[in-house]
Amino acid sequence: MYYPDELIEEIRARNDIADVISGYVRLQKKGSSYFGLCPFHNEKTPSFSVSRQKQMYYCFGCGAGGNVYTFLMEYENFSFTEAVKFLADRAGVELPEAEYSKEAKQKADLRASLLEVNKTAARYYYAQLRSERGARAYAYLKDRRLTDDTVKAFGLGYSNVFSDDLYKYLRSQGYTEELIRQAGLVNTDEKNGVYDKFWNRVIFPIMDVNSRVIGFGGRVMGDGKPKYLNSPETPIFDKSRNLYGLNRARTSRKPYLLLCEGYMDVISLHQAGFTNAVASLGTALTPGHASLIRRYASEVYLTYDSDDAGTRAALRAVPILREAGISAKVVRMDPYKDPDEFIRNLGPEEYEKRIQSARNGFMFGLEMLEKEYDMASPEGKTAFFREAARRLTVFEDELERNNYIEAVASAYRASPDSLRKLVAKTAVSAGMARPTERPRRSGERKKPREDGALTAQKALLTWMIEDERLYDKISSYIHPEDFTEGIYRKVAELLYGQRREGELNPARILNYFTEEEEHREAASLFNTKIQKLRTKQEEEQALREIVLQVKAHSIDGRTMSLDPADMAGLQRLMEEKRKLEQLRTLHISIDHG
Question: Is the confidence at residue 552, as pLDDT, over 70?
Answer without folding.
Answer: yes
